[in-house]
Design brief:
This is TIR domain-containing protein. This protein has 1193 residues and is α/β, with parallel strands linked by helices. It has 29 helices and 55 strands. The protein is globular and about 115 Å long.
């Protein structure tokens, strides 16, 4: 058997050992006798045994032997009289004893030799070691280590062979020991295709902290079929050898149902740890005593798989005080509540679903037996992968089921899986459901059938009204991984878990009207049209799955028999008939586009959620009852044009009131202003609204939206108890003034007064809102009038982070002082007649983003703060080329200065205007140049027209994705890189790499996570640098010499949606160009090169169509004052026929495609490809295109 190579023994989750037994012996003593017989016997018994004559000839034996010893489960050391004379054997012994510390079993065999001879190094062992000491007199430590190791190994329990004992029986004793050892070290089968297992098992292993001397408990938690057992097995295989004993007890849930099952678990644990197969447990209590007695002094690894009740561990672990320090217990469970019995010391690892790439790979492996499926199946494979939603069990079962089947069978199977869940998957998932009590089951089924996708708080209100105690039940469902709650508070569940819940309901009865829940459209339609409902029905969802809404006429008495119905949900269905009866016990009524009045006898005293947007509603009739609707929490009557007046509303516990887009709403009753539990009130776009309650005393209100209420002129007074309000939106509102009581809103964080044409001033009390973080208003009213200003709070907002100023008038912005806005980070100015951004802006020391939009007369920016990270100038008509050039020159100058990296600046255009500009400056700490680990400073620009000149300091340039140059022993300072390329709309990422003498480092990486249409066809430019100290470190860590080759590379990858991965882009797809500014030792001259306009790039791109590979055309243009530095443009018109001078460099001296050759004139390293030719004048872009095409033919 050949040696394994390049293998880390602990890296695999499926197997640690390559060999069962490694034989260490003195060849001339026993090879052809005892050792040969032992080897044959071991092989005959099926043990994979290594003996040294298997070594391939010519290989470096010591290195290979060390690796082989590491990969052996057991080392049998055969001590014979001449063993110590071999330094090779002694080195083997040292390595073997090192491996003993990591779990290898070492069995010494003293062949015709007393163990004391080895232990005390007597007789021939003494003579051999004296000779070694003389031979290695310069390395006495080596000999001393041999002595120590001989003594330690001889002290181990082993086998002593004497001539009087029959050799076959002696060998059989060794085999029995090897057999029992292998049985206890047997690797567990993990998975046929362990995709993603290693990363997860390593994550669990990191929690175990095997170096700690504490007893630790780790829970592996997740839904059924997610891979908990698989991960636990992988962890077991990875670390079991580090413990004195180990045991993997599977299926705890099933075994714990009976006393016999518990006793069987106890016996298995004792057998595994003690390696005594004769142990018998007579009772559970006796088993506990035996576990404590036999295991209390052993450092063990114990894995309990599939525990669903905390008491199931009592008979195996107690309180985890039965085991020696350093022991580790791993528990896999669907219910994380199981671990709470062990206190705060236990840790939890939650197993999440597989990421798309892993899921696809696992499915394809099971479906095809390879990771290279047939192309015709890929689209269906992706759909099935999405259906399984990252659940390994489903991917495995479905993949195996479809293996070898035709494309038509795949299509049919996918349709079936969506309608009828696979029974095998269903049974696994159903286990968690069966452990719920009846109330918890009702909660689960209600969510699966009706409430999935709703806000948690809303679901809690609804289920609480159904007497289901959801505050207790929902956490239990979460603990058992049956439901989840996302970052936004939305209740969700795995698609297959939802399907399992619905299948449980379908099995209640073959007759839809006799089931508790109806959600399938045909079933719901038939029950409502045929009046076949019953009192068993708990809820109905009437949802059409076709694109256009369906018109239905239902039976007028359809709900008469459904006296227990709690939920009625209508989606994509227009009901064209009126009901004569509607059940009063309804809790959730979700019924958009209902065009008839509700029945006059409808008395919804238990109603919790009323969602009827786009409906005909007479609210006065609906709420005419004299009794309060105490359970009502949510009302949504948005886009209900029949509503003209909100009547007296007796709903003391109402939390949400949505009346947005009720265009005919004019008046709101005073009672609404007294709803103490109301948290959200939306009246946006109620265009005719004129009257609100005179005074608001809404103590719980958090969000109030009056945007686009154009006829509303008076804002209500604010009660001083309204301390919860965080957000007010008054965009395009008709209000004329704000009351001074606005200052009572001391918790307000967001206030928008944009485009309020009637609002001429704001009260001084506005400055009492010192928690305000986001403020938008007309800039000419920011200063209060002298008679309304309350200077007790000062003039300014100390916590304001974002300010939006909009005005049509000519104003000055000199009031923008840092002492008034000390925390301001984002400022958006849209003032039509502004001419100048004043110098005072430079004193806004925390400002990071500045957007100047539609400032038609803006021509100058007098100052910008050092903290600025992004400046956008958009659609400013007076901002001309001179303004842009001045800004760019200043930016590049600051960038190339490198004295303070915090002064980096950049420029870009707005796609809507030829004078648009995006100027980005990253925030960089003042100590960046001293911080080796700091991030790269980036200068990010995006532009289309006009073209700008790249300064002559950038003395290396390339039409391609790399540039090379030479430096000495010190990296030059300054150093800057500029990259430009054309983007498409797709998702992509790019990275800049720096290679010094072949040692590659990442300078910068950036990605666009989502497609962006706004960037299509526009060129993007980046300038970046790194701290000089870090660059010098890179250089010093390379193979430093007098001449060091430095290569800067740009790699761009496009996201492939089909393969769910990034793939290298064809260079013709992004036309990269690069510039480097560096004082190298190969290029003393400086030169200048223009940025080519986009139209020119389009011309080149069309000529390069179909080209594949790395494109790298480097241009080195001499610094000649007579040569044009800037390419003239004619308003962005087609340049195909324009006479545009352009210098192209010499074939032998200046330019290249590819990498590798040295430029003979300047010394730059350029490519070993084809070259541009001698200096020649290109007079049109068409000629330049032809030149490029000639290189590609």
């Amino acid at each position: 058997m050949a040696f394994p190579t390049n293998r880390d023994p602990s890296s695999s989750s499926t197997s640690r050992w390559e060999y069962d037994v490694f034989l260490s012996f003195r060849g001339e003593d026993t090879r052809n006798g005892f050792t040969g017989h032992l080897y044959e016997a071991l092989c005959r018994e099926g043990f994979n045994t290594f003996i040294d004559y298997k070594l391939p000839k010519g290989e470096e034996i010591s290195k290979e032997l060390r690796q082989t010893i590491e990969l052996s489960m057991i080392s049998v050391v055969i001590f014979s009289e001449n063993y110590a004379s071999s330094t090779w054997c002694l080195d083997e012994l040292i390595k073997i004893f090192e491996c003993k510390k990591t779990g290898q079993l070492v069995l010494p065999v003293f062949y015709k030799l007393d163990p004391s001879v080895v232990r005390k190094q007597k007789e021939k062992f003494e003579i051999a070691l004296i000779e070694h000491k003389e031979k290695f007199k310069d390395n006495e430590e080596k000999v001393e280590k041999w002595r120590t190791t001989l003594t330690e190994v001889a002290n181990l329990s082993g086998f002593h062979y004497e001539d009087s004992y029959p050799e076959p029986q002696f060998i059989q004793g060794i085999i029995e020991k090897v057999s029992s050892t292998k049985l206890s070290h047997t690797q567990l089968f993990v998975a046929k295709y362990p995709i993603g297992v290693d990363s997860r098992s390593k994550a669990v292993e990191s929690l175990l902290d095997t170096n700690s001397n504490d007893v630790l408990i780790i829970g592996i938690h997740g839904m059924g079929g997610i891979g908990k057992t698989t991960i636990a097995k992988a962890v077991y295989n990875r670390i079991a050898y580090r413990f004195e004993g180990s045991s993997f007890l599977d299926n705890i849930r099933e075994h714990s149902r009976t006393n016999d099952g518990i006793i069987q678990l106890q016996e298995t644990l004792l057998h595994d740890i003690s390696r005594d197969r004769n142990l018998k447990v007579s009772s559970i209590h006796k088993g506990i005593e035996m576990i404590i007695d036999r295991l209390r002094l052993k450092r063990v690894l114990l894995i309990l798989d599939d525990v669903d009740e905390s008491n199931q561990t009592d008979y195996l672990l107690g309180r985890c005080d039965w085991f020696a320090p350093g022991s580790r217990i791993i528990i896999t469970t669907r219910d994380k509540h199981v671990l709470t019995a062990f206190g705060e010391g236990s840790l939890m690892y939650k197993v999440n679903k597989m990421v798309p790439d892993e899921a696809k790979e696992l499915f394809i492996q099971h479906a095809f037996g390879t990771n290279k499926p047939e192309a015709t199946y890929l689209q269906l494979a992706e759909k099935i992968t999405c259906f399984a939603y990252g659940l390994p069990l489903a991917l495995q079962i479905i993949g195996s089921d479809l293996r070898g089947r035709s494309l038509h069978e795949w299509e049919s199977a996918l349709k079936k899986y969506k309608m009828i869940p696979n029974k095998e998957i269903l049974e696994i998932l159903k286990i968690s459901y069966e452990r719920l009590d009846q109330i918890e089951r009702n909660i689960f089924l209600d969510i699966a059938c009706f409430l999935k996708g709703r806000k948690k708080d809303s679901v809690l209100h609804i289920l609480e009204a159904c007497n289901l105690y959801p505050n207790l039940g929902i956490p239990k469902l979460i603990d058992k991984c049956l439901i989840t709650i996302d970052w936004y508070g939305i209740l969700s569940m795995h698609d297959l878990v939802e399907q399992m819940g619905k299948e449980i309901v379908l099995q209640e009865s073959q007759v839809p009207g006799e089931r508790t829940r109806i959600w399938q459209y045909e079933d719901a339609r038939n029950v409502l049209i045929g009046n076949t409902g019953s009192k068993k029905i708990r809820g109905i969802m009437l949802q059409s799955l076709v694109l256009e809404p369906v018109e239905l006429k239902l039976h007028p008495q359809a709900f008469r028999r459904m006296e227990n119905i709690k939920f009625f949900i209508v989606k994509n269905v227009h009901i064209g008939s009126q009901f004569e009866y509607f059940p009063n016990g309804i809790r959730l009524l979700d019924w958009p586009f209902y065009s008839f009045p509700l029945p006059s006898n409808f008395c919804p005293r238990q109603l919790v959620c009323l969602n009827m947007p786009h409906s005909y509603n007479n609210m006065e009739k609906l709420f005419k009852q004299e009794f309060p609707l105490e359970m009502l929490k949510e009302i949504n009557f948005s886009v209900c044009n029949s509503i003209k007046k909100i009547p007296k509303l007796l709903a003391p516990n109402l939390k949400t009131l949505n009346l947005s887009f009720c265009y005919n709403l004019v008046e709101v009753h005073e009672s609404v202003g007294l709803l103490n539990k109301l948290e959200t009130w939306n009246l946006s776009s109620c265009h005719k609204l004129q009257t609100l309650p005179r005074r608001l005393n809404l103590k719980s209100l958090q969000r109030f939206d009056l945007g686009h209420c154009r006829r509303l002129e008076k804002f209500p007074d604010i009660h001083q108890e309204m301390k919860c309000l965080k957000k007010i939106i008054l965009v395009k509102c008709g209000i004329k003034e704000l009351p001074s009581s606005i200052g009572n809103l001391i918790e307000l964080q967001q206030l928008s007064l944009l485009a309020c044409p009637n609002l001429r001033e704001i009260p001084g009390s506005i400055y009492k809102l010192q928690k305000l973080k986001y403020f938008g208003l007309a800039s000419n009213i920011l200063r209060p009038t002298s008679n309304s200003f309350d200077d007790s709070f000062g003039y300014g907002f100390v916590n304001l982070k974002s300010l939006l100023l909009v005005s049509e008038n000519i104003i000055e912005l000199d009031f923008m002082e840092s002492q008034y806005f000390p925390a301001l980070e984002s400022l958006d100015v849209s003032v039509k007649d502004i001419f100048t951004i004043p110098k005072s802006f430079s004193r806004l020391t925390r400002l990071r983003e500045l957007t100047i939009n539609n400032c038609e007369h803006l021509r100058e920016i007098q100052g910008l703060p050092q903290s600025l990270s992004c400046l956008r100038i958009i659609s400013c008509r007076s901002w001309d080329q001179q303004s842009s050039s001045k800004m760019l020159s200043q930016a590049i100058e600051d960038f190339a200065n490198f004295k303070q990296l915090g002064e980096i600046q950049g420029i870009s255009t707005d796609p809507q205007s030829s004078t648009g500009l995006l100027h980005q400056l990253p925030i960089v700490s003042a100590s960046l140049s001293d911080d080796l680990e700091s991030e790269t400073a980036i200068f990010d620009c995006e532009f289309a027209l006009p073209a700008f000149e790249i300064p002559e300091e950038f003395n290396h340039r390339s039409f391609g994705n790399s540039i090379s140059f030479l430096v000495g022993r010190k990296f030059p300072n300054p150093f800057a890189v500029c990259i430009a390329f054309t983007l498409g709309v797709e998702r992509f990422r790019y990275a800049i790499y720096l290679s010094i003498n072949g040692c590659e480092e990442t300078l910068y990486h950036w990605h666009r996570p989502e497609p962006c249409v706004s960037h299509h066809g526009r060129e993007r430019l980046w300038l970046l640098t790194l701290s000089h100290r870090k660059l010098q470190k890179y250089l010093s860590d390379s193979n430093l010499s007098e001449q060091n080759e430095v290569k800067v590379m740009c790699k761009i990858e496009r996201w492939n949606r089909i393969s769910s991965s990034y793939e290298p882009m064809n260079p013709t797809g992004f036309l990269p160009r690069m510039w480097v500014r560096v004082e190298c030792i190969c290029c003393p001259d400086k030169s200048s090169i223009p940025i080519l306009p986009l139209s020119a790039m389009d011309d080149i791109e069309s000529g390069l169509e179909g080209f594949h590979g790395d494109l790298n055309l480097s241009l080195s243009v001499p610094n000649d004052s007579e040569l044009p530095a800037l390419i003239p443009l004619n308003d962005g018109s087609d340049l195909a026929g324009e006479r545009v001078p352009l210098l192209v460099s010499n074939i032998t001296n200046e330019s290249d495609f590819g990498l590798g050759e040295r430029d003979s004139t300047l010394g730059s390293t350029v490519g070993d490809g084809f070259h541009l030719g001698s200096f020649s004048r290109i007079t049109s872009w068409s000629e330049f295109k032809e030149l490029c095409l000639s290189f590609l033919q």
